[in-house]
Write a structure and sequence with these properties.
- This protein is of the alpha/beta class.
- It has a single domain, classed as 3-Layer(aba) Sandwich (Rossmann fold), CATH 3.40.50.
- Helix content is 47%, strand content 23%.
- It contains ten helices and seven strands.
- The protein has a seven-stranded mixed sheet, sandwiched between helices.
- Helix 7 packs across helix 10 and helix 8 packs antiparallel against helix 9.
- The longest helix has 15 residues.
- The radius of gyration is 17 Å and the shape is globular.
- 35% of the residues are buried.
Amino acid sequence: MSTDSKTEIGEFFNAWNAYRKVLENNYMFHKEIYQVVGQLLREQPQDKPFKLLDLGCGDASFLSQALQGAAINYYTGYDLSEPALNLAAENIGQLDCRMELVNGDFMAGLSNTREPFDIIFTSFAVHHLTYPEKAEFFQLARAALADDGFLLMIDIMRDPGQNLSDYLDAYCLGVQTNWLQLEPEEMTASCHHIRHYDLPETAETLAALAKAAGFRETRPICGWNRHNALQFYV
């Protein structure tokens, strides 16, 4: 991802009020997905507290709720949006764990990780990476995980056999049809962002990249209308 792309993506998410409308109106199925993710996280052994690295954490509002009752003892979050991180500090602060929040690029943070994490989590962030960057992401994630750890990814994904152009047309039509609580300028900015910076892969492609990076298995967790969660096992 170029520096200009990172800057514009950061500026887009700095307009956090618009994205809050997307979250509050559940346009990207956060409620359904995080209900399943929360169950998975709370199923982790209570006698083995885990360290979690959150890449592209945003305000961590949904993840902080999903982590309620889970055996987390250390949280690190990376995001380009400073306003979102300020909110994340409040949300993660409700958990009984140590916390570190970093205003920066999550790929740089991932490459600088020195101690292994038990869980690497990312939500609606990896689709901004190019194909070679996604391959690098899986390699870095594998290196940053403990031997019995896993990567948990929520993201938009193309249907099997669907090309990027058709995906973008379909997704933007869905935005214009369904995201009705956005102001016209917010809807225009959302579609501009999607068409210029969204590069989703199919689930099958992500699984192949993970396998090439050394992940043992990919497990589909849940999905609603191209919004999916996958678990990658070391």
